[in-house]
Amino acid sequence: MDSTFGVGDRPAGDLTTRARIRDAALVHFAERGIKGATMRGIAESAGVSLGLVQHHFGSKEALRQACDDAVVEAFHGRLARGVTEDTLGEVGFLTDLYASSGPLLRYLARALVDSPLDTSSGAASVFDELTAGAGEFLSHTWPDRFPPGSARVRDAASVMAAMHSGTVVLHSHLARRLGVDPLEPEHAPRIGLAILDLYAAMGEFATSPTAEHIRKSSAQDRDNPKEQW
């Protein structure tokens, strides 16, 4: 089976039988969810016996944890490079992530939906890293608007991460509307370009009288919450 990792993301020596089993599990969990995937089906996809899967991982939960660890390690590496190279806020960063991470993104999409309250999951860790990266980008680019450590940058970074990861979670609906699978490498640039167009348009809207009215009204509602019945 094809590797689920992009160039430079697979750890050295990670071409073992154990890695093949985990790669097969990433695909099965993404397609069927944790409950729907079976150890036997994963074994068949990996081309090994069920006993060998049990020997390496023991249980389906342990195999799920290995998948979580692999996703966190891969995305942590990419996000770290994004911080180092100061590209986290660029649309091209998201496009490259889509183009080289299809299977990992499919697993992440399913995990974000299947385990929304599991703060120890790999999906939660990746989302938290996306949020942290977004916060660093916002504070670095607009320090006066988004002071480091402020509630304002926390809120904006969290929403930014949710907006971007939402395109991953809802990729099947995007595929239905776009007519192509956005997680396939050749179609990945469409998401980045669409986001760029939206940001450009919303930047213009943000300076309009309508936006200023919304901003003032929202601030008043926040500062003077209505009594809840």
Shape: elongated
Secondary-structure element order, as H and E?
Answer: HHHHHHHHHHH
Cα-to-Cα separation, first versus last residue: 57 Å
Q: Report the average pLDDT across residues.
A: 80
CATH architectural type: Orthogonal Bundle
Could you give me the name of the CATH homologous superfamily?
Tetracycline Repressor, domain 2
Number of domains: 1
What structural class results from the helix and strand content? mainly alpha
> How much helix is in the residues?
over 70%
Radius of gyration (Å): 20 Å
Q: How is the CATH topology named?
A: Tetracycline Repressor, domain 2
pLDDT < 50 stretches: 5-14
Proportion of strand residues: under 5%
| Count of individual beta strands | 0
Q: Largest sheet, described in full?
A: none
Number of helices: 11
CATH class placement = Mainly Alpha
